[in-house]
């Protein structure tokens, strides 16, 4: 992938990420209501930022959901898994469609990871905002 | 054996697609086992021949009571590992066809070991998720 193709890819990812707001807000609020700690979400973000496979992120969510009750409250972990599996995969397919990338290619995996990272960044921002609101009530 | 960048990328793709779904399907079809069983498998996965021997041994044990299905779990796992071996050679084409027999076998063992580790990682996460 050359620099121009990468730029196009990043632009398409950004277009999709612009539509995350309400979903990220929902997950951010749910995370606060589920008593998730900031470090738990930052840890997830860190794993996503360094992951070379989508399954590294999914496996982490599964493990945390199995081990910690706050990930299970209000179905936070399960819903996040489903969201990544369905909504973000659908957005990945849109990006790949726009750029003529077959979905079984490495570039499609990269797009998927970029979308997950963008979504988690927004989720954490919404979490932090909701957490402040929660404390002020 | 040193992997090329292309081989590493191919293994990551296979892990994200086929192996991830295989692990979910495997537990759905074969039932869950204690997490310690899979952690034991991961310990042996560093050497594929040892993993095969361990799975064979476990499949031949006389499992009783609530662990009665463990035998069929391990038999299915043994079959799955054989299927992975075939995939390495045919579907994924990770090993060049023009290698000598001994070298080809070593490379197949190496790659199937890597894929087995990926599969077992997904299997472990799925087991934990199902809250065993």
Walk me through this protein's architecture.
The complex is a heterodimer of chains A (137) and B (132). Chain A has one domain (3-136). With 137 residues, chain A is an all-alpha fold. In chain A, helix 2 crosses helix 7. The termini of chain A are far apart. Chain A has seven helices and no strands. By secondary structure, chain B is mostly helical. In chain B, 74% of the residues lie in helices and 0% in strands. In chain B, helix 4 (70-89) packs across helix 5. Chain B is globular. Chain B starts with a helix and ends with a helix. The model of chain B has no long low-confidence stretch (mean pLDDT 91). Classes of the chains: A mainly alpha (137), B mainly alpha (132). At the A-B interface, helix 4 of A face helix 1 and helix 5 of B.
Task: Give short descriptive properties of this protein.
heterodimer; A: 137 residues; mainly alpha; 7 helices; 83% helix; globular; B: 132 residues; 5 helices; 74% helix
Beta-strand percentage of chain A?
A: under 5%
The best one-word shape of chain A is globular
Number of strands of chain A: 0
Rg of chain A, nearest Å: 15 Å
Number of domains of chain B: 1
Helical residues, percent of chain A: over 70%
For the sheet with most strands of chain A, the description reads: none
**SSE sequence of chain B, one letter per element:** HHHHH
Q: Average pLDDT value of chain B?
A: 91
